[in-house]
Each structure stands twice: as structure tokens, then as C-alpha cells.
Amino acid sequence: MNRFTFKGLLAGIVLACAFGQGASAAEISGVKLEDTIKVAGKDLKLNGYGMRQKFVAKVYVTALYLPEKSKSFPEIMKMDGPRRVSLVLMRDLTSDDFGDAFMNGLNNNLNNDEKSKIVSQISKFGEMFGLLQGLKKGDVLHLDWIPGTGTQCEFNGKKIGEVVPDLLFYNAILRIWMGERPVDAGLKNALLSAK
């Protein structure tokens, strides 16, 4: 490679890095989403994102972050490494409304045998929703899977609730949005777009 070509390549890399730092990969309804984030010290990539709507009302923006992009939900459930689902509220919700929607999502995607294996963990999660006074427009909820630790929730930058250790539970949460009977089929397709 001659000197001129090498300098041009180097300049291109420097410019790409400068513009890439802190740049959002996407924006939806004013919510900016980062292309990569760190969870448990590992880089995760934005796999997909979309809006949860109920009738015409915008409820929340959802983003899925993974170690590697994938369009296959069975593959995502088997992935090593951390994972994150982020929710950004687009309207005010009571903690009861949010908790009920969460339970409906689980009930629609798990059979009784599957639920019986994680019933105590579902109960712990329900207690966490009870700790929230309510959710306001702009609030951010992260649902993280951290290998060797479990499911950790973060609300507006603060860890909440107990860590739930079983991977079965985290994958059950993912099924709310990406299971056979997702809360919103369009949102499922958006989260699995792996663009």
C-alpha cells in the first residue's frame, strides 16, 4: 500500500471514529437509541427497536441489545453473554397497569408447566412493580440478563428489586415481546430486524 493510500485510509478511520462517538444509531418519537451500549463490561449491539402502541396511543419505545445481532428468537434465547431490553415510557402508567401488562404477556406465552418452574421469580418481579409509585412519560426501565448473576432491573439509572438468577425467567420476559403470542406483532418484527 503506498503512502498516499495509507494516509487517506487513516484519515477516513479517524473521521469515522470522531463522528461515531456518542452518535445515536436511531431515533423514534424523539427517543434516541445508542448503536452500542455496555452491560456487565461487555459491548452490546442494537438488534432492533420499535414502538409499543395500544390502539392509537404510544405506550413505550422498546430496544433490544445483544452481543451479536440476530433475527432468530430461538438463537437469542441461547446466546451467551449479557442482553438488555430497554423501555422508554411515552405516557404515564400506574404501577398496577404496568404490572398487569407484564403478567398478561407472560400468561399469553407460557404454559402452566413453564410458569410453575419460575413462579417464585415471577412473584419477586411483581413485588418490584409494587415498589414503583407509578411510571411517568420519559422514565427508562432496563431489563438486563447478566451471566453468573441473573436478571437485574434498573429504573431511571437506579437498580431496583432483587436479582432473579434463573435464565428461564429472563427468556420468559423476552417472550412477552418476541414469543409466539407477542404483545405486539409489529414490535416483535422490529426487535428481530437485526438491521
UniProtKB/TrEMBL annotation:
It comes from the Bacteria. One of its GO terms (molecular function) is intramolecular lyase activity. It holds the Pfam family Chalcone_3. The keyword Nuclease does not apply. Residues 25-192 form the Chalcone isomerase domain. Gene3D superfamilies: 3.50.70.10. Keywords: Lipoprotein, Membrane, Signal, Transmembrane. InterPro entries: Chalcone_isomerase, Chalcone_isomerase_3-sand, Chalcone_isomerase_sf. Residues 1-25 form the signal peptide. The keyword Transmembrane applies. This is Lipoprotein transmembrane.
